[in-house]
Design brief:
Layout (H helix, E strand, L loop, with lengths): L10 H13 L4 H14 L10 H9 L24
Helix pairs in contact: 1-2
Length: 84
């Protein structure tokens, strides 16, 4: 069994949990286990979604809203001026 520590738990929320646990005749720890079990077992099984590459493509694919001006290409390439 695993342990779970919850930090920065709101005092009001803790009080509500204590009342709910008492109403259900359980300890606070058992109540948290019941809440998590109910929340996680009632959701449908996760289906694999698109991969990372597909998600990146979807994010950036779309109509281009601007055009960059292309520079004139009349000059020949030159050697780089590197410091000696």
């Amino acid at each position: 069994m695993a342990n779970l520590t919850i930090r920065d738990f709101d005092d009001g929320l803790k009080a509500e949990l204590r009342v709910r646990a008492a109403r259900n005749g359980r300890s606070m720890e058992a109540e948290v286990r019941a809440i998590l079990t109910e929340a996680l077992s009632s959701r449908p099984a996760a289906e694999p979604g698109p991969g990372l590459g597909t998600r990146i493509h979807q994010r950036f694919a779309g109509p281009v809203e601007f055009e960059l001006p292309l520079p004139d290409r009349h000059d020949l390439p030159r050697a780089a001026d590197l410091p000696r």
